[in-house]
Amino acid sequence: MINAMVAVIALVLGVLGVWAWWGSMVELLRGLVPVLAILLGALATAAGLSRLPLGGAEGEVSGASSRRRRVSSLFLKEDWWAIWLGVGLVLFALLTFSGDPGLMRSLAINPGGLKWSDIDQLGLHFVENIHLYAVQFSVWAIFFGVTCRVMGIRFDHFLASFSVLYLVSMAIFAVSGWESASSYNLEPPLVALLLGLLLANTVRIPTWMDAALRVEYYVKFGIVLLGATFPISLVLSAGPVAIGQATFISLVSCSTIYFVGTRVFDLDRRLAAVLSVGGSVCGVSASMAIAAAVGAKKEHLYTSVTLVVGWALVMIVALPFISQALGLHPGVAGAWIGTSEFADAAGFAAASAYGKMAGNEEVAIKAFTLMKVIGRDLWIGIWALVWALVATTFWEKRPPGTKMDRREIWRRFPKFVIGFFVASIIVSMAVAQYDEVTFQEVVKPELLAPLGALRGWAFIFCFLSIGLTTRFRELKAVNMRSFSAFSIGVVINVITGFILSVYLFGEYWASL
Amino acid sequence: MADEGADQQKGLCGDCRHFVGDPQALERVLPGLRALSSAFGSVRADSGWCALLDRFAVARDECADFAGK
C-alpha cells in the first residue's frame, strides 16, 4: 500500500516538474549531449583501438609474400608520426593565431612559469584551470595514444601509463614553478631524470607502464616543434659550421674507438664498429643502424646499449654543472654538449638543464640542435653505408643475398629531421610579414611561446621516460676492454668538442 | 651461416620465423634499448635480429636457413 502511494506521489510530482521546469530540463538534456558523446567516443575508441589490426609484427614484415599486407612505414615509424603530429600542430597554431590566439595559450598551459611562493597560490592555479589541464591531457593522450596504437602498442596500457606520466610531469613543472626552485637547482630536466631513475631502480615498475615510456617518440616530436621557433635563416647560416665541427669530431672519435678497440683491446671488429658509431654519431640508434651492415651479434648491440646509457647519464648530470662552474655561455655549452652527448634525448636534457641554469634555455637548445641533429644525426645513413662497404670490401665475404646499397642512406635517414625543417620553413615564412615590434609583442607571446611550452611538455615526458626506462638490473655487464675502448672515444669527444666549441668557434656559438 | 646447397630453400629474412623484426619484440630481446633509443625509429629501417644465427640482418636478406612462419 505504502509503495503504491509513494509511486503515485512520485509520478504526480514528476509530471508537474516536467510541466513547471520544461526549459531547465531541455537545457540539462542539451548539456548532457556532449558529455555523453565524449564518454561514448572514449569507450568506443578504447574498445575499437584494441582490435585495430595494425602495427606490430604484421606491419613490420617486408618479405615478398607479406608485401601486400604491409602497412606503410609512414604509419609504423615514430619519425613519421612525429612529423604528422608536430607539423599539424604548427599549422593549427598558425590558423588560430589569426583568429583566436588565446586557444593555443590555453592548450599550452603549464604551472612551470607561476613563480609561486605559497602552496595556496599553486592550488588556486589548478582549481581555476582544471578544465584546461583536462583538455591538454586529452589532446596528448589522443595524439600519442592513437598513434602508438597504430604502431602496435596497446591503447589501454598506454592510457593508464600516460596518465601517470602526465601527472608526475605536471608535479615536476609545479615544483619548478616555485620561486626558489632555481636556487636548489630544481631544473625540470634533471628532476624528471633523477626522479625517474630513483623510481625505476627502487620500485618494480609494472609492465603496462612501459607502453607510454617512449623516449625517442617524445624527443622527435619535440624537435619538430622546436623547428617552429628556429628561423630557417639560422639553420642555413649556422648549419655548415655545425656540420664541419661535428663531422671532424665524429671522424676522429669513430676511427679512434675502432682502431684502439681492434688493435689495442683485441675486440671483435663487429663489436668495435658498433661501439665506434655509438660513441661518435648517435648512440644506440647509430649502433642499431649499422648492426645489420656489419652482421653484429645481439651481445654487441647490448654492450653498446650499456655503455651509451651509462656514459650518457653521467654526462647529463656532469656537463651542465661543469658548464656552470666554467661560466660558459649557453650557446657555447649547447654546442659542447652537442659534440659530447651521443643520444639526442640525453643531450636535450643536459642542454635544457644548463640553459635554465644560465637563464637562456632557448640558445642552449638551439646550439645543441644545430650540432647534434644537423651536424651528426643527419648522416647516420651514410655511416651505415660506409660500414657496409668496409664489411664487404675488407672483411670476410658477406653472405650472399645481403642487400645494402646506396638506398640505405634514405632508408636509415632520421626522417623526423624533415619535420624540423618543414616547421622552421613554414613559420619563418608566415612571420616574415611582421615588423620587429609586432614580432616581439604579438608573434612571440601568442604564437611562438605556446609552441615552446608544448615542446617543454614533450621534452619533460621524454626526460621522465629516460629515467623510468633506465633500469640498471636490465643492463648487461660489459668487459673492461669494451669499456676502455668506448671511454677513450668519450674522452676524445668531450675534450675535442670543448676546444672547438669554446676556443675555436666560441664567439660564433655565443652570438647565436 | 649455412652453406648454399641448391636443394636448400632460400627465403627472405623478413618472412622467416627466426627473424625478430617486430619493434616490440626487438625491445624485449634487448632490454634497455628503449632508454635512449627505440626500435620504432627510422634509423632501424627493416633491421632485425636472427635468433637462429645470432646476428643482425635486414628483412630483405636471404638465407639458406630460412624457415617459413
Walk me through what this model shows:
The complex is a heterodimer of chains A (512) and B (69). Chain A has 21 helices and no strands. Chain A is mainly alpha-helical. Chain B has one domain (11-63). Mean pLDDT of chain B is 86; it is low at 1-7. Chain B has 69 residues and is α+β, with helices and mostly antiparallel strands. Chain B starts with 10 loop residues before the first strand and ends in a 6-residue tail after the last strand. Chain B is elongated. At the A-B interface, helix 3, helix 4, helix 9, helix 11 and helix 12 of A face strand 1, helix 1, helix 2, strand 3 and strand 4 of B.
Produce the secondary structure layout.
The complex is a heterodimer of chains A (512) and B (69).
Chain A: H1 2-20, H2 22-49, H3 56-60, H4 78-99, H5 102-107, H6 119-150, H7 155-176, H8 188-202, H9 215-228, H10 232-264, H11 269-294, H12 298-326, H13 330-340, H14 344-358, H15 361-374, H16 380-394, H17 408-411, H18 416-431, H19 436-469, H20 480-504, H21 506-510
Helix pairs in contact in A: 4-9, 4-18, 4-19, 6-7, 8-14, 8-19, 9-18, 9-19, 10-11, 10-15, 10-20, 11-12, 11-16, 11-20, 12-13, 12-14, 13-14, 13-15, 13-20, 14-15, 14-19
Chain B: E1 11-12, E2 19-20, H1 23-29, H2 33-36, E3 47-50, E4 55-58, E5 62-63
Antiparallel strand pairs in B: 1-5, 2-3, 3-4
